[in-house]
Design goal:
It comes from Streptomyces edwardsiae. 48% of the residues lie in helices and 17% in strands. It is of the alpha+beta class and 191 residues long. The strands form two sheets. The chain has a five-stranded antiparallel beta sheet with strand order 1-2-3-4-5, covered by helices on one side. A three-stranded mixed beta sheet has the order 6-8-7. The protein starts with a strand and ends with a helix.
Length: 191
Amino acid sequence: MEGTEGSGAGAATASYGRAVVYREKLPRRWTVVTVAVLAVWVAYQGSVLLPEDSTVWFVILGFSAFFALVFNAVPFSKRIYHRIRLSDGQLTVGRETIAVDSLAVESVREAREQPTDAEFASSLASRSREELAELRRASSATASPRLLGGGWSVPMGMDQIVVETVRGESLLIATHDREALLDALTRARRS
């Protein structure tokens, strides 16, 4: 993953939060492997079936393209809805852009204290039925945060952080590199 970078000479004269640049690259390993395996499969079938059984080969080609789309739907949706960029004082998550100065400084600090998904799951596993029932009641009384960038939920394999705007709106951000994103937001939102 590419980390956070300052913009050198312009950092001292840049306006509030504009010197911080962060771009989160999403992993491509799964997409490359599935497309490569399917391409090898189609090439092998082509060497066996062509030119006599070209109709069967075209059917195999069509099914392979369908499977490539099915196997890579989540990575494609991550690229559309959850790609994170921070530059020029703007935080862009997927198709949505907000100003970094609209985030509350305290909520960015508190986001560091939030448990990761694995820590949260292990803490839930150690609770009694009564404690879980009380947590359900408390969580149903509060509004869930809005997922920044769109989509239905945080995709598998991504971590999440919750930050608040200065207006009090809770935002959920799905990320692959929680610490690097929080470092970039903290540096961009210093007051």
